[in-house]
Structure formats: structure tokens, C-alpha cells
Amino acid sequence: MSEYADGPASGSTVPGPRAASLAPPPRALPVGSQDGDMTEEMEEAYWSVHDGAAARATVRQVLVRLPRITARIGRLAWRADRRATAAVVACQLGSAAMSAFGLIASVAVLRELFAQGPTPDRVRAAVPQILLVVGFVAGRALLEAAVAVAQARVTPKIRTALETEFFHLTAHVRLEAVEDADWHDEVYRANDRGLFYARQIVGQVVSLASSVLGLAGTVGVLGVLHPALLPLLLLSVLPVGMAAVRSARARFHSFKRWNALQRRVRVFSWLLLDQDAATELRSDTAQAALLDEHRRLITRISEEDTRLGVQAAVLNLAGRGVGGIGTGVTYFALGAMLIAGWLPLAAGAGAVLAIQAGQTALTRLVETAHLVYEHAMWVDDLLAVQQRCRGLQQRTAELRAPEQVKTITLEDVSFTYAGKDTPALDGVSMTLTAGETVAFVGLNGGGKSTCAKVLAGLHDVQGGRMCWDGVDVRTMDSQSLRRQVACVLQDPVRFPFSALSNVTVSTGSLTEADPERAMAAVRAAGADQVLAGLPGQWEALLSKRFRGGQELSGGQWAKVAVARGLYKNASLLLLDEPTASMDPPSEHAVYEAVLRGRLREDQITVLISHRLASVVDCDRVYVFDRGRVVESGSHTELMDLGGLYAEMFTLQAGGYQARDSAERGTAS
Ligand SMILES: Nc1ncnc2c1ncn2[C@@H]1O[C@H](COP(=O)(O)OP(=O)(O)OP(=O)(O)O)[C@@H](O)[C@H]1O
Predict the structure, then answer these.
(1) Is 433 among the domain residues?
(2) Interacting residues of 607 by C-beta distance below 8 A, sequence separation 6+
(3) With left for phi above 0 and alpha for psi between -120 and 50, is residue 299 left, alpha or beta?
(4) Do 517 and 382 share a domain, yes or no?
(5) Which of 146, 261, 277, 302 has its CA 20 to 30 A from that of 37?
């Protein structure tokens, strides 16, 4: 919807601003439910949807999902590096076998030591078994090292593959998807959490597998010693497992809250350290408010840390207490078995070793299972976002856009942004011919920028059609079309690169340059004087964030952006209010360059401007209002027409003249 109301304002045909009603603000902002900040609400923000998932899940849910997660991570790893993945699996199995054999050898050592006869003889008899134990322990250590090496090979590859694919997909998603708030949330979440946890999850799955195999080995050994020992293991590990589950859950719940606080602290730390915010913070003396909130938050984090630590200690004690009862019952039962003669003393001692190993493996298993369960949600999320991005990619087609377009036609084009009722473009038709410069003017929200985006192929038309040399662009490859278009926007991206890279990036390179073209582009844009004044000139780094970097003024950045657009040397050059922040001589120079000194004679140039004096020399002016082209023609034709353009032009010109004569009157 236009920001302007219908009808003339004070006798003018130029519509006046619409009077919108705004309620007065409250005396104080609503506070969080507990502590007067926004932390409570932040807990459920888009980036924290899976936080605490493991704490909410039942044991059954965790157990059901774990094999699927392991398989999925296994597939990722297999795709990234087959040899390293196979090595991880093989060495992991070998290491578990070494543990089990080591346990069996330890039982054999005990058997020799508990045998009849003089002590020296018993020790001597145990030596071969002791050497075996040493061998198995050493073997296990070597295999664990091999697992770590193979894991170190495969994990970065998974990360590189996932991250490369993620950014490749997101960078090529269609513009309208990028403007969708949900998509924005999803990709930020995937980037922030998904990629982060994807790096960790391989190690966690390996650790999980190692705990499972360790537990399986213990079960095997106990089964060999005496099958009746298996229920005993259950008796001793169940309480330990339950305590571990409780403790892991409590930690997750607390972490969730801690995390929300941390994120808010990060916002404040960033504001306090940020260069862009520095000037405003100091001029507004807003530091006190930010420092107060920062201090309050970090105090709450330290309180949360203490609470978490105490709670963990209590839970640990409770877990050990319950586990201790279980272990006591187990040892009592073991003693009974020994007395009853079911088991030799040496096997009983071996069983104690095995039960202890089983308890350790189970505790680790519960803890890692929780981590894997929760982190896998983030990885799943990342993979789902990637899948969604695949469906939102720009169009690829055999047909390429012409390298030297002769005519671009819009035929009755309409376009409505998602979520809007009124069209941003409504039945727009025009023909642009190679070598001409046209201007789009009109009221705010009239549809000028949208029309430029449609011309650039950034939005597909929804009604009507746009043709390049008579061919509907919807049949052309999107990327090939974009290569033939250069866009210079009002708020250009300030790339933290060298000055030269800031110019050449429009051709898809940060390192390769055509020196002559670059020189011509910066001259035409008036950026040559900007660069000449920088230490390092073309190589000057344009960002104060890096050592030796330079900062430019808004107008200087605009000149660099215009140079970037000109350097691309595209068939179609779109300038969307590029000179708004430039001084009058610079603005004049840019328009001169665009209108008369262009680098490419057959270029079609579209100029969007609110300063109507700058469009006077354009071949044709299109006047936009509420998505429609309401007038078009040369400046003279439009002035003769006496419509909206003439009214706006006279209003602007009159403003200058009136002030000038008023000032002259005062002076005389
Ligand atoms: N990305 C967007 N998503 C949704 N609506 C949009 C978007 N961009 C523009 N609009 C809406 O489309 C209409 C046309 O906007 P457009 O930016 O094309 O106007 P404009 O003539 O360039 O305005 P201005 O002179 O203020 O730059 C407006 O109502 C605006 O609110």
C-alpha cells in the first residue's frame, strides 16, 4: 500500500502524506515473567527450538532413535571419507574386543594368583597372563589412538562438505524465499546450531558406539564366567543408569536457561564492543543502560552456574547412593554364589572387575546418548533446511540470456509480494532499447524498485511477461540473466575487502581485475579521488575492523558501489538512488557519466531517483504510482502534460527557488 493518501494536498496534485494514528507508548515496557528481562521469551526463540529435546524425551524415544541417528551420521561419514569411516568402525570393534580379552586375561591372572601353592610359584604362573593383559591394554590404547586419527580425518571433511553445500544452496535461493521470515529463521538456526553440532556429533557417536561395545564386552565376559552373573550386572547398573539419566536431564534443563542468558549477554557484549555502535553509544551516553543490563545478566549467569553445580553435586550423591545400594546387593549376591560354590573365588574377583567396567560404560552411554539425541535434532534440522533450499533454487535452463540485449519489454506485468494484498506492480508495460537511459520516478512505494528487481530477473513476473529480445526470460537460465545485469542500490554492501576487490566482486572475482576497465569505472563514478586518497590505494582494505583498514564516508561508499556497477559492464545497468548520499558535484558527475560517458554504448540504463533535476536528460521518464506507470515520456513531454511529474518537478524546483529568493530578500 502506498504511504500517501489520495487527493491533492494544499491545492497540489501531489498527494500528501497519509495521517496514520499511533497510540502513545507505555510508561514501562512489559517485563519477563520472573526477572524483568526478555530472557524468558528468548528461550523459545527460533534458534532454540531443539534445546532440551533430550530432557523432554522418554528413555524409549531415545533408544528408538539412536540406531537411526547412528546410521545417518554413518552415511554422512561414509560419503565424506570411506577409508577413514571404515577405519573408525574396524578400530572401534578391535578396541572393544581388546577390552573384553583384557578382562578375560585379568580373570585368568586372578585365577593363577588364587590357586593353591607357594606365592612365588603362583606369581610366576600368572606372568604369561599378566603379559597378555599388558598386551591387550596396549593394543586397546593403540586402536583408540587409531580411532581418534581416523575420526580427525573424517570429521573436518563432514564439516567442509555440509558447510560448503549449505552456503552454496542458501546463496542461490530465490530472492523471495530469502525475504521470507521463516526461511530466514531456519537458515540462521541451521548455520548457528546445525553446522556447529554436525562438527561434534561424529565424535559423540563414536563415543556412544564405544560405550555400547564396552557394555556388550562386559556382558560377554560375565556370561563366560557364569550366566547367573548377568542378572547381577543388571542389578548393579540399573540404579547407576537411572541416576545418570536424571542427572543428564537436569543438566539439559539448566543448560537451556543458561544458554538463553548467554545469548542475551552476547547481544549486549556485541553492542558494547561494536565499532558501528560506538559513536552512537557515546554520543547518546547510552553505555550506562547497556552496562547495567550486562552486569545484571552476567550476575544471573554466575548464580545459575552455582545452582547448576550444587544441583549436579546433589544428584551425583543421590545417584551414587542408589548405585551404592545396587552394588551392595550385587556383591552380597556374589558372596552368596561364592559360598554356595557356584563360582570359584578368582572368577568372583573377575566379576567385580567386569561389573565396575560395565557401570562406567553405562554411565558414559547414558550421557552420550542424551547428547547424541539432542544434537542429532540439530543436524536433522540442518539437513531438512538444505533439502528445503534445494526446492527454492534459482531456475536453471539450457537457454542463456543474450550477451548484448537489444530490447527488453515488459508486457502488462504484475507482481505482488508474498503476504501483501495489493500488487507492487499492476499492469506495467514498457520497452527499453539498447543504448538508452530511462528514469523511474514517483512517490514512495510506487513500485520503482520492484520494477527494477523484475527487470534484473530477481523476481519473476506473476502476470504478463518480460522478454529479452522477444524471448520470455522465464525460459532462460537465471544465473546467465544476472550476469547481464548490474544493480547499484541505495545502501550498497560495504564489502570488507580491498578497494579493488570491492570493484571487481561484481564480476564474480575478488582477485582478477581488468585494470583499464577498473580505472574507467572508478573515474566515471568519481571514486578515483576516493581511492587516490587512501594509503595503499587499490589495495587499501575498506574496513576498520581489520588492522590497517580504512573507513569511507557514506557518499564515498556510494561512489565505490557505482564503480562496481559500471565495472560489470552489463547489458542492463540499474541504479536505484545510488547518489542519495553523494555531494552535489559527485552526483552531477555520476549522472554525467551514466548519461554521456558510459563504458558501454549499447548499455540500457535505468535510473531511479527522487531528485528530478537529475533525470531531465534521460531519454524517457516513467512515473510510478501505486504499482502503475501513470505517465511516461521525455522531461519536456511530461512537463507539457502538466501531470504528476510536472507537479513534483515544480514542487522541488520551487522549493529551491523560494528559499533562494527568500534568502536574497533577507540579505537586501
Ligand atoms: N520485499 C518486500 N516485501 C514485501 N513488500 C514489499 C517489498 N518491497 C517493497 N514492498 C512493497 O511494494 C510496494 C512497492 O515498493 P517499491 O520498493 O517497489 O517502491 P518504490 O517506488 O521503489 O519506493 P521508494 O521510493 O520508497 O523507494 C510498497 O508497497 C512496498 O511496501
Answers:
(1) yes
(2) 437, 438, 439, 440, 575, 591, 594, 614, 615, 618
(3) alpha
(4) no
(5) 277
Nearest residue (CA) to ligand 1, atom 2: 417
Cβ atoms of 500 and 513 closer than 8 Å: yes
Q: How far is the CA of 450 from the centre of ligand 1 (A)?
A: 6
Pairing mode, if any, of strands 604-608 and 437-442?
parallel
- Give 460 Cα–ligand 1 centroid separation in angstroms: 16
Rounded to whole angstroms, the Cα distance separating 128 from 133 reads 9
What value of ipTM does the predicted structure carry?
0.98
Q: pLDDT tens across 483-535, in order?
A: 999 999 878 888 888 899 999 998 888 888 889 999 989 888 888 888 888 88
pLDDT at residue 39, rounded to an integer: 45
Distance 486 CA to ligand 1 centre (A): 20
Q: Which residues pair with 623 in a beta bridge?
A: 441, 631
For residue 101, the enclosing domain spans: 44-390
User: Closest ligand 1 atom to the C-alpha of 453?
Assistant: 18
Q: Are 315 and 427 found together in one domain?
A: no
Grid coordinates representing 130 are: 599378566
Say whether 279 sits in a helix, a strand or coil: helix
Per the structure, how many domains does the chain have? Answer: 3
Q: Which atom of ligand 1 is nearest to the CA of 440?
A: 21
Closest ligand 1 atom to 577 CA: 27
H helix intervals, 412-514:
448-455, 478-482, 499-504
Q: What is the CATH number of the domain that holds 194?
A: 1.20.1560.10
Report how far apart the first and last C-alpha atoms of the chain are (Å, whole number). 47
Q: Look at ligand 1, atom 19, and give the residue with the nearest C-alpha.
A: 445
Per-residue pLDDT band for 349 (boundaries 50, 70, 90) equals confident
Q: Where are the beta strands (DSSP E) in 418-569?
A: 425-433, 437-442, 463-468, 471-472, 485-488
Ligand 1 centre and the CA of 466: distance in Å?
19
Q: Which of 135-149, 225-239, 342-356 has the lowest mean pLDDT?
A: 225-239
* Kind of pairing between the strands at 572-576 and 604-608: parallel
Protein residue whose Cα sits closest to atom 16 of ligand 1: 447
Q: Where are the beta strands (DSSP E) in 437-555?
A: 437-442, 463-468, 471-472, 485-488
Pocket test for ligand 1, best of 14, 448, 458, 608 (most atoms within 8 A of CB): 448
Q: How far apart are CA 498 and CA 360, in angstroms?
A: 56
Cβ neighbours, 10 Å, residue 176: 16
In angstroms, the CA 294 to CA 305 distance is 16
One domain, residues 574 and 586: yes
Q: Nearest residue CA, atom 18 of ligand 1?
A: 447
Ligand 1 atom closest to residue 443's alpha carbon, by position in its atom list = 25
Distance 473 CA to ligand 1 centre (A): 22
What residue ranges line ligand 1, CB within 6 angstroms? Answer: 1, 179, 417, 420, 424, 442, 444-450, 624
Q: How far is CA 430 from CA 17, 434, 520, 631, in A?
A: 28, 13, 31, 11
Cell of 315: 544428584
Domain identity same for 638 and 540:
no
CB 175 within 8 A of CB 449: no
- Going from the Cα of 628 to the center of ligand 1, the distance in angstroms, rounded, reads 13
Which residue minimizes the CA distance to atom 5 of ligand 1? 417
Phi-psi category of 620—alpha, beta or left, where left has phi over 0 and alpha has psi -120 to 50?
beta
Which domain-ending residue is among 536, 569, 602?
A: 569
What does the DSSP 8-state code read for residue 615? G
Residue for cell digits 545478566? 297
